[in-house]
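Margin note: ligand = pyridoxal-5'-phosphate.
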Amino acid sequence: MLVLAILLQYGAIGVVNTEQWIAADQAHCWHPFTRQEDWVKGEPAEPLVLVDGDGSWLTDSEGRKYIDGNASIWTNIHGHKHPLINEAMVEQINKVAHTSYLGFANPRASELASRLSALFPPKTLERVFFSDDGSTAVECALKMEIQYRIQVGQAERVHFLAFDLSYHGDTLGAASLGGVGEFFEPFRKFGFPVKHLSGLEELDALDEQTIKKTAAVIIEPLVQGVNQIRPWPKGMLAKLREWCDQHDVHLILDEVMTGFGRTGKMFACQHEDVIPDYLCLAKGLTGGYMPLAATMVRAEIYKAFLGGADKAFYYGHSYTANQLGCAAGLASLQVFEKERTLDHLPEKIECLAGELKKMAENEPLIYEVRQCGLIAGIELRRSNGQVFDGKLRVGEKVSVMARDYQVLTRPIVDTLVVMPPLSISTDEIKILCGGLAAAIKDYRSTLDA
Ligand SMILES: *Cc1c(COP(=O)(O)O)cnc(C)c1O
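Resulting structure:
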């Protein structure tokens, strides 16, 4: 019996129930963006072990159900266990899961690249470079841009412009363009040369010398995600495109979060009729099923990589253009057509706006709500408008309290994020917002006590 207990404890026999999954996690796993010393103590809450999903709902290992309020970290589009995507993936896995893209083509990647290009006017973003996730989609655009400048004889033009508090992923190059200090300060000196701007006004104030060194500007169009869901002023993107054209600077759009319908249109750039030079896609590309990314590139840029071995783009990942991922991506695009996903968004966006307005009116701790399509941030502050002391971890605590009301989300500092799958119903939006409102109220009562 003792031997059995020891074997069980150390996982030699099996880790098969909630308690064992959590113990094994706390003993062996290392979570992203997580204070591990608290996590392993089960603070501020015991880990939930998620085992099942269906539509907008997730189920934990104890059988409790929750609305997936942040679309599984901003990835899910059509809901979990979508029959059409599941079917497409099963069909693909019965053929082959993965084959090398180095030296070989594959049907699903060919189809997906054509479908993606066809979402834009002909002769624009007609080349697609596949990689694995948002960070690599950006990393790849940055390296392409540097190599492009060198190959067209502008070797001095390899600096980037980015915006304060932006987020472009965690690989070294992508992270060096991000503007969130805590994330990147220790690595700053290893990154790409970059100048951060607060907005368009600073762009106009740049001197000629700086502009001549600038290869590209990178931006999260329409709304910054990690910066606590902060929309840009209307018209800003179109003006940025104009500035880039005037100064021979390329425009890299990071639509890793905004892509695939989140803002109400298929891509955020379509709200202002902007076509970038590079478009970075990931999170929603597979409907939230598989890690797959695409860097879409203008034909003119691609041309600079032709003409001999020394011109080739020497970059790639083992799982580039993974067939299973591409099958999921294709199926997701089919669901957009079949379910007319985009046509149903206005009603949902309006419902969310109404719910948020109601919440803000009734809850003194809500300082501001910010919304862009089906993306929203609910910023919590003291009722006198003062920000909470970071040590209180208010956003985190409220998010944990929301679990009691069947809602899962993850905050950014004290901003609660609402970013459900696009397939969410208006009734489910009401459950989601109602749950968050109840959790905020519960937290407020702990302050009064
Ligand atoms: C999430 C995100 C990334 C990074 O994507 P990963 O898949 O996490 O590497 C990059 N840019 C934006 C705007 C994002 O929201």
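The pocket of pyridoxal-5'-phosphate is lined by residues 133-135, 138, 167-169, 220, 225, 254, 256-257, 282-283 (CB under 6 Å).
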